[in-house]
Amino acid sequence: MNHFSYRNGRLHAEDVGLSDVAASVGTPFYCYSAATLERHYRVFAGALPEGSLVAFSVKANGNLAVLRTLGNLGAGADVVSGGELKKALAAGIPGGKIVFSGVGKTTAEMTAALAAGIYQFNLESEAELLALDAAARSLGQRAPIAFRINPDVDARTHAKISTGHAETKFGIPWSRVREAYGLAATLKNVEIVGVDVHIGSQITSLEPFEEAFQRLADFVGVLRRDGHAIARIDLGGGLGVPYHIDNTPPPDPAVYGAMAAKLTKGLNARLILEPGRFIAANAGVLVARVIYVKKGERKQFLILDAGMNDLVRPALYDAHHDIVPVEEAGPHALRARYDVVGPICETSDIFAADRDMARLKDGDLVAILTAGAYGAVMSSAYNARPPAPEILVKGAQWAVVRPRMDDDALLATDRIPNWLAV
Ligand code: LLP
């Protein structure tokens, strides 16, 4: 359920017409709906046992306005870099609701997180444990830790976003977990507080979760018998969303939440969840203009003014995004088959291949749907194209929450060394 819909034949984000925003800020742009973010957060949090921590995964959408919107509802943050930590704090999310994940936290990042008094470090190796212990010692602190356990399950999602099987770089291998906790227990500047797992992203069936959560829950007993105080269970992120809006039944967060609750019931531990995509994906669209409709030898191309630098998911993961016209096509509109592409000089600069759509013409606006997660955050300035700006809508209000960088600002990021001076 999201708050993008046609009103009087024009696509709106809540009460704001996307063509009005386009007329004001130009194209392309990302547009997020606050009501949708809020709804997704509430549905997700409401499906979990009372007192659980929902730490929004900042990597999915790190815009300060988005983080503030979620933080105001009580969300915490899951961060994976010093930059994301700063963003979460700047958005007003307290350190006490921040968990720090990621396979290679540097000492500088750990030190910043300790200074912020974060809730938990999710460690992924013995080396990280030793580095954190040293960083905490130099600050005279004890760092709260969990180990991310690699449960060796197949997440049955795209290979590039699957993380829970033994061949990936993620987590502590199952066979060394007890040893790792044993080592942690000997260190003075860390405090064992929990366990953590994250098996991958865009997971659309509950079985892989169930398998991983069950293994983790069983292991809590083992660790407790070893004498460790496991008070928190972090189940990671990964609940998928429907990218084909019309025909994919969404995974039901209520069923997911009930399953997580059931498997961890009786363990008397606080649950932590790190959803990103579930909260943000369908809360955002990328609006672009058709620059040209081009006839190739065998295909017709819609050349948009957005490119893979703005939204890389189709190029990187062959990801599907629905694409709809901003001016609603009537039921009798003529249809055509297009490759929807960007202007970038790569064949991979494509948003959709052979897509059957209502016929469009030069200058028309389209919205690429389900772009609120892993969209703007993964954008780049490839081909010296400033990434698309971001807009947040709330009811009838809207604001530019990341302005478009102009070409001169982009140029100003480079420096010419003295030896090249003329
Ligand atoms: N926690 C950890 C430790 C993670 O690595 C991730 C995602 C999440 C939580 C959030 O997962 P989510 O709920 O959003 O599925 N760029 C890719 C997705 C990469 C996900 C990486 N980790 C994409 O566009 O599909």
If classified by CATH, what would the architecture of the largest domain be?
Alpha-Beta Barrel
Taken from the alpha-carbon principal axes, the silhouette is globular
In total, how many beta strands? 21
Percent of residues in beta strands: 25-35%
Unique ligands: ligand LLP
Name given to the CATH homologous superfamily of the largest domain:
Alanine racemase
Please identify the top-level CATH class of the largest domain.
Alpha Beta
Quote the average pLDDT.
95
Number of domains: 2
How would a textbook summarize the main sheet? 9 strands, mixed
pLDDT < 50 runs, ≥5 residues:
none
What percentage of residues falls in helices of 4 or more residues?
25-40%
How would you sum up this structure in a few lines?
By secondary structure, this protein is an alpha/beta fold. It is 27% helix and 25% strand. Residues 57, 59-60, 78, 101, 161, 198, 201-202, 236-239, 274-278, 313, 317, 373-374 line the site of ligand LLP.
Q: What does this 3D model show about the protein?
A:
The protein has 12 helices and 21 strands. It has 422 residues and is α/β, with parallel strands linked by helices. The chain folds into 2 domains: 159 residues, Lyase, Ornithine Decarboxylase, Chain A, domain 1; 247 residues, Alpha-Beta Barrel (TIM Barrel). The strands form 3 sheets. Strands 4, 14, 15, 16, 17, 18, 19, 20 and 21 form a 9-stranded mixed β-sheet that branches. An 8-stranded parallel beta barrel has the order 5-6-7-8-9-11-12-13, surrounded by 6 helices. Strand 8, helix 6 and strand 9 form a beta-alpha-beta unit. Helix 5 crosses helix 6 and helix 8 runs parallel beside helix 9. The site of ligand LLP has 22 residues, from helix 10 and helix 11.
